[in-house]
Design brief:
With 261 residues, the chain is α/β, with parallel strands linked by helices. The chain is built from nine helices and seven strands, in the order ααααβββαβαβαβαβα. Helix 5 crosses helix 6. This is DUF218 domain-containing protein.
């Protein structure tokens, strides 16, 4: 079997995964650069695999376009290497620390609820935060997230109920931030709630999110003035892990390009 046939099969498989994944997420109204770009990339791979010989022949006989085509593939391989480094960073820099230094507060960032219950990803974040809250009962726990589309209660309320029911964390230790719809707002809206308890963002604060999200969340927090943060990354469920990591790659790059942090 020729190498080109293996290339077509590989690209067709990768393209199908990216295309279907992006299409499903877009259909669920999750439309952002982290879903649209993988969708378009998957569509391109599928078309290229299907018309491989026609496309290669066209560029072979059109020298100027051929140079552009090869340069495009060079950029793709550079991007793929950078993606590999990003994945490697996530896998190596999110080891769960056993001993956390004393903190004044623990902010748990929202990640969606389903039928009034934390999503699998959000539950992992809460499971990550709970032992720290139990070990440090004087630390306030800020659960952050507004009302998702189609839901009747806020993420914050669902998170608070989860912590109380599963870990017996007292309601008096939990602060509900029920308005935010993004990481930026999670952190911004938590500030006045902490200030009301005489906790400033210059004091030691733990921020709990998913492993793939720690890098971008830390950048956003630092831009807002958080100066003494400990990032805690919760394991992402296996069924969504690499999809989430891929989407986060695009989200992190776009945030950097748009000077969001």
């Amino acid at each position: 079997m020729q190498i080109s046939t293996w290339v077509r099969i590989f690209l067709a498989l990768i393209g199908s995964v990216l295309f279907l994944d992006g299409a499903i997420l877009i259909a669920l109204k999750k439309i952002h650069i982290g879903t649209v770009l993988p969708f378009l990339l998957g569509l391109f791979f599928c078309i290229y695999a299907a018309f491989y010989y026609h496309i290669e022949r066209f560029f072979f006989y059109h020298f100027r376009w051929h140079s552009v085509w090869r340069f495009g593939w060079l950029c793709f391989w550079i991007w793929l290497i950078s993606l590999g480094y990003f994945f490697n960073y996530l896998s190596k820099n999110n080891m769960q620390a056993q001993n956390i230094a004393p903190v004044k507060a623990i902010i748990v960032l929202g990640s969606g609820i389903e039928n009034g219950q934390p999503s699998a990803t959000l539950a992992k974040r809460l499971d990550r935060a709970a032992p720290i809250a139990l070990a440090q009962p004087n630390a306030k726990v800020v659960v952050s997230g507004g009302v998702d589309f189609g839901e009747t209660i806020s993420e914050a309320k669902a998170m608070s109920q989860y912590l109380q029911q599963h870990y017996r964390i007292p309601a008096s230790q939990i602060i509900l931030e029920k308005q935010s719809t993004s990481t930026e707002l999670n952190l911004k809206n938590s500030q006045p709630l902490l200030n009301a308890r005489n906790i400033t963002i210059q004091q030691p604060i733990a921020i709990v999110t998913s492993d793939f999200h720690t890098l971008r969340a830390a950048a956003i927090a630092k831009k807002q003035g958080y100066t003494n943060i400990t990032m805690l990354g919760a394991t992402t469920p296996l069924e969504t892990r690499y999809n989430a990591w891929l989407r986060e790659y695009f989200a992190y790059v776009s945030g950097w390009a748009l000077n969001e942090y």
